[in-house]
Amino acid sequence: MADFDPVTKAVIPAAGLGTRFLPATKATPKEMLPIVDKPAIQYVVEEAVSAGLLDVLMVTGKNKRSIEDHFDRAPELEDVLEAKGDDDRLTQVREPADLATLHYVRQGKPRGLGHAVLCAKQHVGDRPFACLLGDDLIDPRDELLKRMIQARNTRGGSILALMEVPPDQVSMYGVATIEATDESDLVRVTDLVEKPSADQAPSNWAVIGRYVLDPAVFEVLENTPPGRGGEIQLTDALRELARRGDADGGPVHAVLFRGRRYDTGNKIDYLRTVVQFAAERPDLADEFLPWLREFLNKR
């Protein structure tokens, strides 16, 4: 088995403007919108830590200071809770600051996901790294990121996560052309297209917001012109790496994910996610579910 560099760092792009959630996101980052009582981005950091990645870089932008504050200590609040003997809430308040070593870099202007990833180059260096998008939450019981890192350790190159979507949804995603390997849940990616129409999509396997990337992606991104929407698209760079095959930073493989994914990128999916999380919380379900059933019966 080849000796590949270990994956030790995670990058979380969090510089988007969150326009779909205005006016709530006028002054509050969309990544800080709560899923019940915890901001969405904390679930993403917890996922990285669970996969063994304790060095986390967040790519932020203007009006994102509250993200840094959330993952910092809050001495005055902690003192109040400690004085009240409220140990449960004190633990919850301290937990974000103790999760990992957090770093931050600013993406001065939103120029696409590819540019956000490129902003991580100095911190990441010449080592492979994981990239986790905050719009996608992966159920911790499914351990997708661990599987992706395992695939990188044996195959090298970059590893994507793919989910099968209905034909009428392919235009919302980057879509992959794939070839089978000797592992049932792992495929080789030979091509990618960003948000194709249903009749032009090469498959129904869509890229979701988890990546394990070879550092060669930085050189490709530096030479990738703006694509769809005038932004530097990560999909375009991954397409170039896939076409290189086994040389110069390739190949590109993907884990076929059939587990539980929660989308928070638009209002309807965000609401679904909040309801699902609340319904599965032992401390909430007994009271919440009967109320929800009664509410729905009255509609």
UniProtKB/TrEMBL annotation:
Q: What is its EC number?
A: 2.7.7.9
InterPro entries, per this entry? GalU_uridylyltTrfase_bac/arc, NTP_transferase_dom, Nucleotide-diphossugar_trans
Is this entry keyworded Transferase?
yes
**Which segments cross the bilayer?**
none
| Entry keyword annotation includes Transferase | yes
Q: Name one GO biological process term.
A: UDP-alpha-D-glucose metabolic process
Enzyme class, top EC level, equals transferase
The record ties this protein, via SUPFAM superfamilies, to: Nucleotide-diphospho-sugar transferases
State the UniProt keywords alphabetically.
Answer: Nucleotidyltransferase, Transferase
Q: Which PANTHER family match?
A: UTP--GLUCOSE-1-PHOSPHATE URIDYLYLTRANSFERASE
Q: What is this protein called?
A: UTP--glucose-1-phosphate uridylyltransferase
The species is: Thermostaphylospora chromogena
